[in-house]
Sequence to fold (392 residues):
Amino acid sequence: MITSVLPTYNRAPLSFVKGEGSWLIEADGRRFLDLAAGIAVNALGHAHPVLVAALTAQAGQLWHTSNLYQIPQQQELADRLVEATFADTVFFTNSGTEACELAVKMARRHFHDAGQPDRTEIIAFEGSFHGRSAAGIAAAGSEKMTKGFGPLLPGFTHLPWGDHDALTAAITDKTAAILIEPVQGEGGIRPLPDQCLKGLRDLCDEHGILLILDEVQCGMGRTGRLFAHEWAGVEPDIMMVAKGIGGGFPLGAVLAREDAASAMVAGTHGSTYGGNPLACAVGNAVMQIVAEPAFLEGVRARAGLFRQKLEGLVAAHPDVFEAVRGSGLMLGLKCKVPNMDVVNAAYTQLLCTVPAADNVVRLLPPLNITEEEIAEAFNRLNAAADTLASAG
Ligand SMILES: *Cc1c(COP(=O)(O)O)cnc(C)c1O
Fold:
């Protein structure tokens, strides 16, 4: 008999009842160190006092009005994002998937209104993840996500990750945009080298194509810059954001340059909940903390420390781990044993991690994890690896 909750998830037999900073407390009282952070969502850990205050203050005032009316919290957050990034304009969604939908629509509408209606094709990459909607699965194109869900939304081409020649060959006069994650998350924590991102920007400029970056997972301070593309010194035309921006409250956004967005006039897109007062109150609080240069510098310092420890972990357990990869506090351990064995061994050490494709275990701690907690995470990973090495 089917379960009352549609059984689409492989859930761990854990049920958390409370969160405090980098810690999750299980119903039985055990304290887990949380390097999952709700899949890079709890950017400031659990129950951050500034976020709790922002949410509860707004909850006592006004929850929701829809976008029939002005929403000052939304205006404030849009201004903050425009001020801090390449973007001239922002649309708020509830999720990364919805950000993907709009990014695709915006790119197509841009060329439609520019008198190039045949430019509808979007080039995306193998191993990518852009959400679970019809556009999201068509964009990622992996059999795992698309099987049985056809006919798929047309207009997507998929290329191997990091193959510049294949990319150059794939561009036609029908190409509207290139869509890519600067650091692949679900695909196994694969950072795109800065040179490649620069090359993509050049190609887009040369052919008059839009560059869409999916920073749903790697954005909002995760790599030690507010957005990952800043490391390469290039700017997208359109960018998808979600996960960390709400710190645990459902919130996403599409950021865009004016030229890319100018066809999206009144009536072309909308959302009932998108950017509601509760979500934006929290988003503003998150932005206020994460966009501070000193905070981002701290992320880079903690990331350097964690990475160094993980290199030691890999060296000490060559039978279990192959390599560390990633950027900032978006880290991956490429495993030699099945990655789920590592995830499960970590659970027995009261440590939460996230599996990814390519046999990788993701480590996505809150961005404000302390040095002591990083040392503790290392100890627990080490103990987990010990159990696997002795078993194998
Ligand atoms: C999680 C994720 C999405 C989808 O976001 P949802 O909020 O789950 O809809 C899209 N792109 C990337 C890169 C992601 O990591």
Notes: The longest strand covers residues 321-327.
